[in-house]
From TrEMBL:
Coiled coil: none annotated. Residues 252-346 form the UDP-glucose/GDP-mannose dehydrogenase dimerisation domain. It catalyses: UDP-alpha-D-glucose + 2 NAD(+) + H2O = UDP-alpha-D-glucuronate + 2 NADH + 3 H(+). PANTHER family: UDP-GLUCOSE 6-DEHYDROGENASE, UDP-GLUCOSE DEHYDROGENASE/UDP-MANNAC DEHYDROGENASE. NAD(+) binds at D67, R72, T129, T169, E203, K317, R384. Keywords: NAD, Oxidoreductase. Residues 1-17 have a biased composition (Polar residues). Belongs to the UDP-glucose/GDP-mannose dehydrogenase family. Its EC number is 1.1.1.22. This is UDP-glucose 6-dehydrogenase. Residues 1-20, 418-459 are annotated as: Disordered. InterPro entries: 6-PGluconate_DH-like_C_sf, NAD(P)-bd_dom_sf, UDP-Glc/GDP-Man, UDP-Glc/GDP-Man_DH_C, UDP-Glc/GDP-Man_DH_C_sf, UDP-Glc/GDP-Man_DH_dimer, UDP-Glc/GDP-Man_DH_N, UDPglc_DH_bac. Pathway: Nucleotide-sugar biosynthesis; UDP-alpha-D-glucuronate biosynthesis; UDP-alpha-D-glucuronate from UDP-alpha-D-glucose: step 1/1.
């Protein structure tokens, strides 16, 4: 990272008590930081697409995505990308492969973590932070073990000043821990500035969300070094994001904003699902209720579609993380409030299964049931925390013969979920656990060539029985 004498302009719009402007003037030896190389640790659902868009929009910046999983890196280097997202393939291949005569490649995927860290000016941390499965906070707290390991690797490999950016969803004040680790383990004379830059991506619309974000949050310490680092990161996003949407704040507000956003979105889903039970008992129509209340400009229509329940890798994990934070802060009423959001979601999945059983004369023995859709939402192959998993497990427990149909795009996700014991958020971790008998009764069909199913899969669960 090189310095110039140019004084950067404001990163934000108007200054204010809640929105302090970033004006970086600094001392004589503190100029604007010019970003030439970016490294992202973690080649998953966030790291890969995010870096592809950054590389697309910043052809003069070399962007390197690193991961210890050689198979995943090989997939990113091939035409068979490890995840499916609309428009992802084109977004990756242009900066990765270049355009003959007009653009050199500037997006790279590698397992050489040490070199990528040593060369980078900015390092994104985009590793998994799952719910802890053992020890203090098990079942609630976010596990930042992978994040700590990545931070220690950075401290070991860095020989020049680095800007470290939290992309992973983390507990509030995690940046403080990262700064302590870097200070204790880094080489003498190497400076580390830690920023929070949470992602607000929805699977199925990831590329659109990256290209047209509602906001870009950058949290930093409010000293001159922190503001200078934030300005450098803001300059990367400013290549395509309007400056008014690049919002700066303190580190802790930025970290907590991500978990708060997911908690509020999950709350809306649980709220409409709870109302759906009232509608069924009274003869009201939940779709009409959602339409009516959504017309209120204070409420709006988004996230008000009743369903089997929310899934995916984020909502449940982040809400439970907020529950644990509230408990740690001795706020039991707040913890109970957010815990109810998850409880309603689990109850809704169970209620759906009970309705299926009731409609089939209270017995599923040897009945063939087709479940259309295995991913947790449409336009993605991600099966993590999918409501379909819970439904299938319960149906098979009732001795039904389940038939799962889904698009071929989800093949790698289902196979990975059934075969990888290290993945804490996939099928085998769901309760009740699937036995050999369960697997025997569950059949998977590829439906990519069936035009009647094209617009329904993968999606929330639909069930048909014979």
């Amino acid at each position: 990272m090189s310095s110039t004498s140019t004084v950067p302009s404001r990163v934000n719009g108007q200054a204010g008590p809640q929105n302090p402007a970033l004006v970086v003037r600094g001392s004589d030896n503190l100029g604007e930081l010019k970003v030439k190389k970016i490294c992202c640790i973690g080649a998953g659902y966030v790291g890969g697409p995010t870096c592809a868009v950054i590389a697309n929009k910043n052809p003069s910046i070399a962007v390197t995505v690193v991961d210890l999983n050689a198979n995943r890196i090989a997939a990113w280097q091939s035409d068979n990308l490890p995840i499916y997202e609309p428009n992802l393939f084109e977004t990756v291949t242009v900066p990765r492969d270049g355009i003959k005569g007009s653009r050199e490649p500037n997006l790279f995927f590698t397992t050489d973590v040490d070199k990528a860290i040593a060369d980078a000016d900015i390092i994104f941390l985009s590793v998994n932070t799952p719910t802890k499965v053992a020890g203090q906070g098990a079942g609630l707290a976010l596990d930042i073990g992978y994040l700590e390991a990545a931070t220690r690797t950075i401290a070991r490999c860095a020989t020049s000043d680095k800007i470290i950016v939290e992309k992973s969803t983390v507990p509030c004040r995690t940046a403080e821990s990262l700064r302590d680790i870097l200070a204790a383990n880094g080489k003498p004379g190497v400076r580390f500035d830690v920023l929070s830059n949470p992602e607000f991506l929805a699977e199925g619309t990831t590329i659109s969300d990256l290209l047209y974000p509602d906001r870009i949050l950058i949290g930093s310490l409010m000293d001159v070094h922190g503001q200078r680092a934030a300005a450098a990161l803001a300059s990367v996003y400013a290549a395509w994001v309007p400056r008014a949407r690049i919002i700066t704040m303190n580190l802790w507000s930025s970290e907590l904003s991500k978990i708060s956003a997911n908690a509020l979105l999950a709350q809306r889903i649980s709220s409409i699902n709870a109302l759906s039970a009232v509608c069924e008992a009274t003869g009201a129509n939940v779709s009409e209720i959602a339409y009516a209340v959504g017309l209120d400009k204070r409420i709006g229509p988004h996230m008000l579609k009743s369903s089997v329940g929310f899934g995916g890798s984020c909502f449940k994990k982040d809400v439970l993380g907020l529950v644990y934070l509230s408990e740690s802060l001795h706020l039991p009423e707040v913890a109970a409030y957010w815990k109810a959001v998850v409880d309603i979601n689990e109850w809704q999945k169970d209620r759906f299964t009970r309705r299926v059983i009731s409609s089939l004369y209270n017995t599923l023995m040897n009945k063939r049931i087709a479940v259309f859709g295995f991913a947790y939402k449409k336009n993605t192959g991600d099966t993590r925390e999918s409501a379909a998993i819970s439904v299938v497990n319960h149906l098979v427990a009732e001795r039904a013969k389940s038939f799962v149909a889904r698009r071929m795009r989800a093949d790698c996700q289902i196979n990975h979920a059934e075969s990888n014991p290290a993945n804490a958020n996939h099928v085998h971790r769901q309760k009740p656990a699937r036995s050999a008998k369960t697997k025997k009764n569950m059949h998977v069909a590829k439906t990519s060539r069936n035009p009647t199913l094209k617009h329904n899969l993968p999606s929330a669960v639909m069930v048909a029985a014979t």
